[in-house]
Amino acid sequence: MKAWRWLICAFVILQALAAAGAGNWPVYAQSTSPPVTEYWQLIQETLEAIRQARKLPPEQRGPVLADAADKLEAVSSVTLPNGQIAPVDNTALVAGLRVNSPDLEKLELRLDALAWTHRTWRQPSSDPAAFDKLALVLARPEFQPRPQRQPSWFDQWWEKFINWIDELLTRLMFSRGANALGLDWIVLIIGALVLAGVAFFFWRNVRAHLVREAALAQDAAELNGLSASSAIKQAQTLAAGANYRQAVRYLYLAALLTLDERGVLRYDKTLTNRQVLRHARQSADTELAQAMSPVVDTFDSVWYGFTEVDDETYQTYAKQISQVTNAKPSVKRDE
Q1: Mapped to the 3 state alphabet, what secondary structure does the chain carry?
Q2: How confident is the model at residue 59 (pLDDT cuts 50, 70, 90)?
Q3: Nearest-CA neighbor of 32 among 74, 63, 86?
Q4: What are the pLDDT digits (tens) for 126-136?
């Protein structure tokens, strides 16, 4: 009896060894840390198994997916080219393969993305000094953080002032008391009025500048080739037609052109009337400067202030112009 038992045990051991030699055991049962290249090959095989299972009827997918799950479950780490052991976690993939109704499309997308990452992953540099070179590059000034500038006393004061304004506006406009009293609307109305005032003054200054530019352009066109005698004739013609405002303008121009022709005061269309008067005080004697002062005042009042002019005012202004043109200064103009 004992001999038969030994024969039976030997037969069982021989059958087991034969099965192992035939490759019926799992591929990674003996080692859970295959080379990383074999692991990536296993990922590719799993991806192909899923694609094959998608072509099969649902009732025939189980064995294919179970075999792929067993192979993945057997691997818990891989051996890197430098000999180090790196852990891998296939739990999620194995669980997705073993569920009753696996989402094969989702599993295929995950494994396809993993395989694509492996194909496009940049291999590590073989240069042992690569990190040293990187350290030298990162040590350059352009890669260094900028030192924070210490705020000055003005910066600190300005920040406190802005915070105080913000807090004040918050209390005035967004607090419950402000809403109950209507202070938020009052602040908004005042702010709108201030903005409207600023816009009005800005518009007025721009308009005045444009009007002055237009007037200079008009003067340049009208006064091209104008002489003192022709200006006086033009003034007389305008006065005869009761256009006293334009007549006053041409009388004023006649005075300036007369002084320029006599070499007393240079005529410059770009100068303001006050600048002309200041040049008269600098270039001529006291008599001419005193005579020109009421002439400039009257012209500014009529031309820019739109003061009404009648025949009597025009005749008075003509006498003032005569005093200017008949003055005999002792000092010549500055060229």
Answers
A1: CHHHHHHHHHHHHHHHHHHHHCCCCCCCCCCCCCEHHHHHHHHHHHHHHHHHHHCCCHHHCHHHHHHHHHHHHCCCEEECCCCCEEECCCHHHHHHHHCCCCCHHHHHHHHHHHHHHHHHCCCCCCCCCHHHHHHHHHCCHHHCCCCCCCCCHHHHHHHHHHHHHHHHHHHHHHCHHHHHHCHHHHHHHHHHHHHHHHHHHHHHHHHHHHHHHHHHHHHHHHCCCCCHHHHHHHHHHHHHCCCHHHHHHHHHHHHHHHHHHCCCCCCCCCCCHHHHHHHHHHHCCHHHHHHHHHHHHHHHHHHHCCCCCCHHHHHHHHHHHHHHHHCCCCCCCCC
A2: confident
A3: 74
A4: 666 777 888 88
Alpha-carbon separation of residue 206 from 200, 211, 213, 230, 281 (angstroms): 10, 9, 11, 34, 32
Half-sphere exposure in the Cβ direction for 71 (13 Å, CA): 20
State the pLDDT confidence band at 48, using cuts at 50, 70 and 90.
very high
**Band of the pLDDT at 298, cuts 50, 70, 90?**
confident
- What is the arithmetic mean of pLDDT over 86-112? 88
Instruction: Give per-residue pLDDT as tens, 177-207.
Output: 555 555 556 667 777 888 888 888 878 776 6
